[in-house]
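Review session, final week

We close the course with one last complete record, chosen because it touches almost every idea we covered. It is Thioredoxin family protein, a protein from Streptomyces thermocarboxydus with 117 residues. Go through it on your own first, then we will talk.
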Amino acid sequence: MRGSDEAARSGGDGGAGPGLAAELGAETGERATLVQFSSAFCAPCRATRRVLGEVAAMVPGVTHVEIDAEARLDLVRRLGVERTPTVLVLDADGRVVRRAVGQPRKADVIAALGAAL
């Protein structure tokens, strides 16, 4: 995905681990989860929601979870989310395998899922 891919490049998980999936408060995907951090007045967040929803509907076992960044400041701080939209791709174990900031293109999201599947 376009944007910051630091967690994947550095081999780190941005402070997230297997416990992240449990902290989301939503059902995660069997194979992968697209986690989107959004805010109320973020125009690119709406387009990102649409793109991630379309990809999740296309790929079996993939779920899209949207997190209100303002309501979940604990996760925002722990994961180093500085802007919205920020998208994390989690593998089946809940580990962050890709991270991007900004509105992604559908092709980039599909390609990023390859790291999780």
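Two points worth writing down before the exam:
The helical segments are 6-10, 19-23, 43-58, 73-79, 106-113.
The beta strands are 32-38, 62-68, 86-91, 96-101.
Good luck, everyone.
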